[in-house]
Structures are given as structure tokens and as C-alpha cells.
Amino acid sequence: MKNTRILTKLLALALVILIAVISLTACGTVDTNSDTNSGTSTPAQTISITVKVIAADKTEKTFTIETGKKNLGDALLEKGLVTEDEHKSGFYTYIDGVRADYNKDGAWWCFTKGGESVMVGANELEIANGDTFEITNTPA
Asked: By Cβ atoms counted within 10 A, which residue in 13, 97, 113, 119 is the most buried?
């Protein structure tokens, strides 16, 4: 009877150790599809988007952006159309070096996707292959 108790306790201890080892092993796995990991991660899928920048005088510049980024703000920063500081704040006064400053003259940049208003900022606006965006300098 005493041997049975000892054997049962040893089996229970071995089971606890086995579960702990499995749990620790699972915690140490790396998501190789994430673009936030370095080293062995799989590169993000490259997509192509079109961005039209429309100045206050209605002249247009069209940019094709090939990127692995997931949102418009990151893609614009990668292409050099916005500055790092403005990207961090999410409030854009300069697009492609052109200023639209509401505080100064009431002008602002209007972001649309395929001609339709967007309901989030550029840093939250998800992009997909083939998307077309318009960024229009809208004077007061």
C-alpha cells in the first residue's frame, strides 16, 4: 500500500513536470510570419498602392508605392511623402513637401480612398494591393 502511494505521487510529479516543460516550450515559440521579429522572420508580402497628391491649384502627382507596410501612414513615410515627426503625431501638415496648415490659413489635407471619404487617420488606415488613395490640399 505504501509503495502504491509513492508510485502515485511520483507519477503525479512526473505529469506536472511534463506539463511545465510543454508549457515553457510553447511560450518560447517564435511567430515567423510577424514583421516585428528580426532575423528569421518571413518578409511581409509586398503590395502596390497608388497615391494621388492633389495640390490646392488642382495639379496632381501620382505615386505608385510598393510596400510591405500595413497602413497608409507607414507607406507614406517609407516613400518619403511625409516626415517622421508628423508620422509619429498622425497629424499631417506636409505631404510631398507641400504645406496645408489649418492653423495658418484654414487649409488641410483630405484623405480619400477611391474617391470616398475615409473614417480613420492615415496611420490607422489599412491598405491592400491595388488600393488607390487621394490626398487633396483643401483650402479654406
From this structure: 113
